[in-house]
Design goal:
The protein is α/β, with parallel strands linked by helices. The protein has ten helices and nine strands. The chain has a six-stranded parallel sheet with strand order 3-2-1-7-8-9, sandwiched between helices. The longest helix has 16 residues. The two termini are about 30 Å apart. The mean pLDDT is about 95. Bound molecules: 2'-O-acetyl adenosine-5-diphosphoribose. The site of 2'-O-acetyl adenosine-5-diphosphoribose has 26 residues, from helix 2. 2'-O-acetyl adenosine-5-diphosphoribose binds next to helix 2.
Length: about 250
């Protein structure tokens, strides 16, 4: 395979005239808002003394210690509530609002920052910290207030405990959301993959499927990732630096 392009000009050439552009984002797009990523933070614990995302965001933890699990969720909800969308989220939202290009946003993030930046129709592959559902009745409810009366909070529908409406390890993604994401990715002319380690399945398969469908792939990440090999352009840059420059130029 040929060597990928590495410059903003290479990326702009791909975006120039593209009628459909899809963004696939991960924790790195929110890093500069102050939301910690899951990997690449050295040996620092994610929460209390736990270092592995797989141990915390796991149904075993939720079922063994529902209150402890909600304390981890509250730590994340309170942290995200104090953060604001950064220049990368805002650039994507502005690009999406520009007439002439069909722009879809697919995210692995549960922080809601794309919505807060003004993006519409965000496909949240892993759910949202700002929704919950009854463990017994499975009814979904918005959970926008940060402070909660009890942990776990009660479900307004069934009165039983709520769980966050996020996808935990060893759980399946919502099939309809994944199918919509798949279509958004393979139907695009350009896929921009921003701030993901591309290690967590099945989201990590999406860039490969795009590439096989003939979509041009741009990776934006300061660190190497397993999908760099299949990308047409790799920008070793922070999202808040690369995206505003790239997308403001493409929108003009
Ligand atoms: P990771 O934490 O695995 O990877 C974050 C990526 O962002 C790394 O590749 C970093 O190099 C990159 N990065 C860091 N700062 C950046 C910046 N300023 N600009 C651009 N990139 C930057 O996050 P994800 O790939 O999103 O799942 O993780 C996938 C899933 O694993 C998450 O959705 C979550 C997690 O466990 C669930 O909770 C189900």
């Amino acid at each position: 395979m040929r060597t990928p392009g590495t410059t903003l000009a290479d990326a702009r050439d791909l975006l120039d005239g593209a009628e459909a552009v899809t963004f696939l984002t991960g924790a790195g797009v929110s890093a500069e808002s102050g939301v910690p990523t899951f990997r690449g933070g050295g040996d620092a614990p994610l929460w209390r003394d736990v270092r592995n995302a797989e141990d915390l965001s796991h149904p075993d933890f939720l079922h063994a210690d529902p209150r402890g699990f909600w304390e981890w969720m509250q730590y994340r909800r309170e942290l995200v509530a104090r953060c604001a969308p950064n220049a990368a989220h805002l650039a994507i939202a502005a690009f999406q609002a520009t007439p002439g290009t069909r722009v879809e946003v697919v995210t692995q993030n549960v922080d809601g920052l794309h919505h807060r930046a003004g993006s519409r129709s965000v496909l949240e592959l892993h759910g949202s910290l700002w929704r919950a559902r009854g463990i017994a009745c499975e009814h979904t409810h918005a959970l926008l207030e940060v402070a909660l009366p009890a942990l776990p909070p009660p479900c307004p529908t069934c009165g039983g405990p709520l769980r966050p409406d996020i996808v935990l390890f060893d759980e399946f993604l919502d099939e309809r959301v994944f199918q919509a994401a798949f279509e958004a990715v393979v139907d695009a002319h350009v896929l921009v993959v921003v701030g993901t380690s591309a290690l967590v399945m099945p989201a990590a398969t999406l860039p490969l499927r795009a590439r096989r469908a003939g979509v041009k792939v741009i990776v934006v990440n300061p660190e190497p990732t397993p999908i760099d090999d299949i990308a047409h352009v790799v920008l070793r840059e922070r999202a808040s630096v690369a995206l505003p420059f790239l997308l403001s130029a493409a929108a003009t």
